[in-house]
Amino acid sequence: MNASPSHRPHPAEWTETQSLLPSAERDLPAGRHQFHKEQMMARIHEDLRTSSRMPAASSVAPVKRSNPFLRRTILPAAAFALAGAVVGALALTGGADDGRAALATGPALTTTIGAADAKGAPQLLERISLAAADTSAPTPRKGQYIYIASKVADTYIKTVGDKSEAVSDELHSRQVWNSLDGRDGWLIEAGATSDKGITLKSDVPFSGSYNALAELPTDPDALLQRIYRASDAVRDPEVPRDQAAFVAIGDLLFESYPPAEVGAALYKAAAKIPGVVSVDDAVDATGRHGVAIARENEGERTEWIFDKKTLQFLGERTVVVKATAGDPLKVGTVTHTSAITERAVVDAAKQVPGQVG
Question: Which position has the higher pLDDT, 55 or 122?
């Protein structure tokens, strides 16, 4: 495919990091870098790592998140002023493995592309918003942590000499703990950290934290304008602002725990973004089928997947829906896939739900 702003990032499309509050930038192969920036804007808590390796003879470059390892994003000071989100430098300690892309050797992930319906998005998002407004989930208390377990996998472009092909890493587990202000946390990701994991530290609260989300406006129009302003402050000019905003909201939904009223407002805000469609069938990383809310940009479609009955958020994926001759990423290639397997409030970092003390 042509170098396109929609190709990599995810986590958020630079908006992974970028959500209202973005993250740090990673190097990508030509054409993927801009998309990353977009995600940075949309990825409220996405990647801080950089994993672009493009040696002369042989290289493996991420087509999506340059770093599925850490999906936090940090918003620049200028954007912070606009978004009202807290920004800070994220420090990692503990011995992470930055070589997942280089080790990816499996066949490219592929899928059947579901039918998109532009007219069905508003109604589906209204139903999803009502489901998200359920206040039965526990409200975190000071000193507690947000725990999120997921399964993720990414596709990369592997180049040997003058030949490039799409390869994927194995579906693997990821566990993240974040304090309510985002200053402290812990990450365990198979193949990216040791079995014990690594510390996540921030000098100041980060934008995707529970506390930061709780301060966001619950009026959909005001919230969307906040997202656009923050996105505009950091996105690459070649990345459409509507796409950056969509990705940013998606990132806010993935590895976070927004209060019910904020979650509901995010879906209502998404309904106001031009180009958003509903998809009749989409599959998350664990094989669960659901309906999706999606948006296409430069040949790739970012999909948020929901249970068909409960409308619970299951995960997200990015799928190539239009390809260019000679590009290793063919129609149906899944450049990123994820599935939330558990989301809970716990009393300490590294504590698993149901575990005492």
Answer: 122
pLDDT in tens, 277-329: 999 999 999 999 999 999 999 999 999 999 999 999 999 999 999 988 888 89
- Is pLDDT at 52 greater than 90 in this prediction? no
List CB contacts of 77: < 8 A, sequence separation 6 or more.
87
Q: How far apart are the C-alpha atoms of 66 and 44, rounded to whole Å?
A: 15
Mean pLDDT of 334-349: 96
Q: Minimal CA–CA distance to 184: which of 133, 143, 233, 218?
A: 143
Gap between the Cα atoms of 257 and 344, Å rounded: 8
Residue 317 CA to residue 282 CA, distance in Å, equals 9
Instruction: Report d(CA 64, CA 61) in Å as an integer.
Output: 9
Q: Beta-strand (E) ranges in 22-162?
A: 43-44, 58-62, 90-93, 106-107, 116-117, 145-160
Give the residue among 2, 56, 55, 9 at the shortest CA–CA distance from 234: 9
Identify each DSSP E strand in 96-249 by its residue range: 106-107, 116-117, 145-160, 163-168, 172-179, 184-189, 198-202
pTM of the model: 0.77
Count of residues in the chain? 357
Asked whether residue 67 carries a pLDDT value surpassing 50, the answer given is no
- Chain mean position to CA 352: 22
Distance between CA atoms of residues 311 and 263, nearest Å: 13
Using one digit for the tens of pLDDT, what is the confidence trace for 205-227? Answer: 666 899 999 999 999 999 999 99
Q: Which residues pair with 319 in a beta bridge?
A: 301, 334
Q: What is the largest CA-CA distance in the chain?
A: 56
Amino acid at 166: A
